[in-house]
Description:
The protein is α+β, with helices and mostly antiparallel strands. The chain has a single domain (3-151), classed as Thiol Ester Dehydrase, Chain A, CATH 3.10.129.10. Helix content is 17%, strand content 37%. The chain contains two helices and six strands; from the N terminus they run H-E-E-H-E-E-E-E. The chain has a six-stranded antiparallel β-sheet with strand order 1-2-4-5-6-3, with helices on one face. Strand 1 (29-34) and strand 2 form a beta hairpin. The longest helix is centred in the middle third of the chain and has 19 residues, at 64-82.
Amino acid sequence: MTVETQTTADIDLIQRILPHRYPFLLVDKVRDIVAYKSAVGIKNVTVNEPHFQGHFPGVPIMPGVTIVEAMAQTAAVMVGVSADLADKKFLVYFMGIDTCKFRRKVVPGDVLELHVTATRGKAGGKVWKFDGRAEVDGELACECSFTAMMDLPQGGA
């Protein structure tokens, strides 16, 4: 499959693009990738994730910051797949998080869909802006805009 036709990323490809690992790898799969434009990440929320020990004991709720981070990881995978950055030491840094709102609790057993759309950025560009929506069963859990700097490897896209 060429980069132009790659529309999904399984956990193996995600780990070849992102430097994150347990307990901070927060996306299990990315689908519906439209090169440099949009993607949908999937996060299967499980009770054995470490943040549930303290957030909150007896009432496990996924922290909002991890939902936003999962959206950012989805966006990074979309750019990484688009620019063929697997195995190339690609890093992404948050620059800003804007208009973030939480609408629903995310709890163990939920399947979080992370819809991200690039609103600024292009192939080879360093600064990107995204709109993100996190949903569970079609119900909005979180929405925000965020800006990130893509630290592309020398000679990268």
